[in-house]
């Protein structure tokens, strides 16, 4: 058993890779090469992020090289392995992402491993590894969903390849060289593609991104037929001030019976993490999205989520993901304990039009 540690980023210019025209130069980013992890090719948590109590129980992308494969364990030294191999670059122009890996599935249906496009658009496998589908949950760019059979189960412990390739304005998906799907894509959009092995004990031979040009910009930028407006914009710094938050996440849209557009989100007051002072907020538009009213707080648990930040996994109450229902109500799932993950469904309507303070937990009111 041999262990290797890579200390340099393998980023160079190549000719004729990834199905690109041999007349075009291409840049390559190896995240794993011949079973060796190239740490510098990853978007690594910064020092401030690593101080978060979350990392008391997790370790990032741990593993070792054994017989030419990077072996990813589920746990290391009593800590869970946060095996999300987020590439430090995105791809511009014609490009190809290629993953070669093996996995022996033994824990029942699992949403990992998968290949991610952007932050949440995922190419996922069925519980037996014989089917693949494109999940569009929170996908940050216009990609079409699809499902297709794999040539063989990718959970049989043998090496399998997954490829995502863009040539011109077409995006193609392959498994073991079999084309699964082809669809149109903005040729100018930067594609951030990476491998997510969270909670899955995989073995990786290689992860390579090849593109006409690599970019440091990881957020997608693409052409849209409609005007794009940012409804919720984070300040990137702590703020408990009404109408401001360090970050906004978990967005949802609904339209009331009178045509009012309701935009919901979590206002993460102090940082962008899942644990902290988090409120459910709303903005309303009565002119079909041309203008938006001020931010309204529809759920404020008086900072009870904050103790989780101080003592992770030691209980607490009030944390809630929020979803907009078709009838205009907000559905929230507040957890009474992170350890037990016990939940209850709270359903409430959006608040009145005028509100200039951060309320306590509100009861149901009517949306005009």
Characterise this structure:
The chain is mainly β and 368 residues long. The chain has two domains: 11-215, Jelly Rolls; 247-349, no CATH class. It has two helices and 27 strands. Strands 1, 2, 3, 5, 6, 10, 15, 16, 17 and 19 form a ten-stranded antiparallel sheet that branches. The protein has a six-stranded antiparallel sheet with strand order 9-18-11-12-13-14, with no helix packed on it. It has a four-stranded antiparallel sheet with strand order 20-21-22-23, with no helix packed on it. A hairpin with a 5-residue loop joins β20 and β21 (261-268). Residues 1-23, 306-320 and 335-368 have low confidence and may be disordered.
């Amino acid at each position: 058993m041999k262990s290797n540690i890579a200390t340099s980023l393998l980023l160079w210019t190549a000719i004729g890779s990834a199905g690109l025209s041999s007349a075009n130069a291409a840049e390559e980013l190896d995240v794993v090469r011949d079973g060796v992890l190239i740490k510098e090719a990853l978007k690594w948590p910064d020092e401030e992020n690593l101080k978060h109590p979350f990392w008391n129980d997790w370790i990032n992308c741990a593993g070792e090289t054994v017989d030419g494969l990077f072996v990813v364990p589920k746990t290391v030294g009593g800590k869970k392995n946060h095996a999300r191999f987020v590439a430090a670059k995105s791809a511009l122009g014609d490009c190809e992402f290629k993953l070669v890996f093996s996995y022996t599935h033994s824990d029942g249906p699992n949403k990992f491993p998968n290949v991610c496009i952007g932050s949440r658009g995922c190419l996922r496998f069925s519980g037996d590894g014989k089917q693949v589908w494109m999940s569009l949950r929170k996908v940050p760019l216009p990609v079409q969903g699809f499902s297709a059979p794999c040539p063989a189960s990718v959970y049989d412990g043998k090496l399998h390849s997954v490829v995502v390739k863009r040539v011109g304005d077409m995006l193609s998906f392959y498994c073991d060289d079999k084309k699964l799907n082809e669809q149109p894509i903005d040729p100018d959009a930067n594609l951030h593609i990476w491998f997510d092995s969270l909670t899955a004990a995989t073995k990786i031979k290689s992860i390579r991104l090849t593109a006409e040009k690599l970019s440091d910009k990881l957020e997608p930028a693409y052409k849209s037929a409609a005007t794009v407006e940012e409804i919720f914009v984070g300040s990137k710094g702590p703020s408990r001030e009404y109408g401001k938050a360090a970050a906004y996440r978990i967005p949802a849209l609904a339209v009331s019976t009178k045509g009012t557009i309701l935009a919901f989100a979590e206002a993460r007051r102090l940082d962008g993490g899942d644990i902290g002072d988090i409120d459910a907020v709303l903005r309303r538009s009565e002119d079909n999205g041309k203008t938006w009213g001020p931010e309204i707080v529809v759920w404020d648990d008086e900072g009870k989520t904050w103790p989780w930040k101080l003592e992770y996994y030691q209980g607490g109450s009030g944390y809630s993901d929020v979803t907009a229902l078709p009838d205009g109500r907000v559905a929230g799932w507040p957890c009474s304990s992170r350890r037990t993950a016990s939940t209850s469904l709270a359903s409430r309507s959006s608040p009145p039009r005028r509100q200039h303070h951060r309320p306590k937990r509100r009861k149901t009111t009517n949306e005009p």
